[in-house]
User: Fold this.
Amino acid sequence: MSGEQVVLGVCGSPRKGGTDYAVRYALQRLEENYRVSTRYFSVRGKTIHFCVHCDYCIKKKRGCIHQDDLQDLYPLMEEASVWILGSPVYHGHVSAQLKAVLDRTRALFAMRPRAISGKLGAGIAAGGDRNGGQETVLGTIADFYLINGMFPVGGGAFGANWGGSIWTADRGSEGTAEDAEGLRSIRRTVDKLARASGLASS
Ligand SMILES: Cc1cc2nc3c(=O)[nH]c(=O)nc-3n(C[C@H](O)[C@H](O)[C@H](O)COP(=O)(O)O)c2cc1C
Assistant:
């Protein structure tokens, strides 16, 4: 593959906590081990409106009616050939912030139907409980990829089936740094992603 691929990491947590740590960890591993450029976008401190189904994007085909901080993310989404979406587990599901980001991608397809199709994607979920809904979050992220013509990639059996799964023990980045098994699931997912996308030769 010619040229350097771009990997986008999106953090769906409003804090500088476990999800931020985990997504950065994944991007760092990619940068250190593969020829790749990374981009990072966090919802933290950003103004991101909900999709209000006004259909402006469908009718006008000029993007989203909301001129908010998501305008910075759209070009990154198109530029990257590989995505890593990370979310904290909130009541067993993705954060409302990440869901708003996902819903707002409709404006991209409305302009360019194949804007993100064919890209590869992985997920990272960070929950306060060991089994607090990480798999549900990773399933939601995989659903998004499938529905939009992307290819979801997990980390494989024996530890990373659905992707990166972190138990923060409600201690944010510190808890994440101590979750050796969770970090292993991220490394496995990232390495699988690298192989699937041609970043790694084997
Ligand atoms: C509104 C809310 C709901 C939560 N629900 C869950 C849950 O269902 N399962 C779980 O394991 N942790 C739950 N937590 C805990 C967070 O997932 C945990 O603290 C995680 O580390 C937050 O991610 P962050 O460190 O990136 O901010 C919840 C936290 C909040 C604020």
Notes: Residues 13, 15, 17-20, 88-92, 126-129, 132-133, 168, 170, 172 surround flavin mononucleotide (CB under 6 Å). Residues 180-196 form the longest helix (17 residues).
